[in-house]
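Database export, one record per block. Field names are fixed; values are copied verbatim from the stored entry.
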Amino acid sequence: MLFNSIIFFIFLGVVVPLYYALPNKRIKHIFLVLASYFFYGYWDWRFCSLLLISTIIDFFVAKALATSNVEKKRRFFLGISLFANLGILFFFKYFNFFIDSFQSLSSDLGVELDFLHLNILLPVGISFYTFQTLSYTIDVYRRKLKPTDNFVDFALFVSFFPQLVAGPIERAASLLPQLSKNKGKINLLQMKEGVVLIVMGLFRKVMIGDTSGRYVDHIFGNIETYSSGEVLAALFLFSIQIYADFSGYSKIARGTAKLLGIELMKNFEQPYLSTSITEFWRRWHISLSSWLKDYLYFSLGGNRNGKTKMYRNLMLTMLLGGLWHGASWNFVIWGGLHGLYLIVHKLMLKGRKVQSVNLKKFSVKDVLNIFGTYLLVLLTWLFFRATDFATVKVFFRKMAFWESSDNSMLFLSIVLAYTLMTLFLDTVEYRTQKHTFILDIRSNGIKLGILFALFVVSVIYMVQVDPLPFIYFQF
């Protein structure tokens, strides 16, 4: 079920009032679990079984981890969780990728592996809920968290529909206590903030992400027929599309959760205003970058065993982070480039702390650092957007052998328009430190007028064209 669809708002209009009308917390939570499974099963009900399998396994594994003091047994129980969750993820997401990769090598030896290729449909959001439930068992194993005895609460933690299919990837230490203490009551501020986040997220997704994305899809789908300037404009627009798309989703997710009395973490904090690549990863997809740091980078050794191993661990983390995004070598290159950027930046820092820009008092150097960081990130987006290496080759060929076009100024104006819209929203959020800055407007008439206008414009666009799926749904 897409957030940018009429059916979702009908679903939300039914679920929220019913949730508050139910008599007690247990019934409310059972209802939310069923609603979440309906939400997830709206694409394909069969995949609900995978969600249930992960939930059952990790609920009982965590209880076994908590009651055992024998380290060998505890590692065995953790292994069950890792094998089950990562095994399901590997089969559905990576099986064909590795078979196809080995096929190109084995064919040279006269061995054909085509018969092993399976027609596997990728479950929506499997990477997100897999990482979320794994964080629970790993935290229990590390004795940083006590397991819950309430299966319904845990099932809701795994399947909570606002953030089920594209995050943010919540930690049990943050979300589970909220679920266990939530008595189905909401204050007025939460309601207001929830509505604002949904409207602002929908506007970003529909009016910035989807509209820019249609240019991107058309140009990248016919890249040979477009000039160099048009192709470069498409890459700039993709950087805006993916940010608007994903940050818009995260805002809608947080707003929807607020309507149910739950606070989700911020997943984006104006990443394109970062002055370094390290700061970028502290502001982009925050729930994933923090997950990779806590459960992968530190598990590999982090920075505890010297600089050489620290750089190795950093690169491995980013390579696996790239592979998490999709079963393609393009994503591995994307992750590798970010790993290389981070290593070079650490070398340049020489132990100094990363400084964030202050938009209330910034220098020309800050502007240059922001622009330089953005260009580095922009290059990596090419590998993220391109569906194959042939597309990447065409792009670089067109950059090396520049082809002019009569439409260059038109596409430049389009890029500037979307850039200015995004920059305006980000600058206001940055300066106010609020994603709900509209609530600070004193005049209720102006406040409601802006929200109503943004919502109506978004809905009108939604009903006129087919909604574009969220980019991160494929992960």
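Remark 1: The chain is about 70% helix and 0% strand.
Remark 2: The chain has a mean pLDDT of 90.
End of record.
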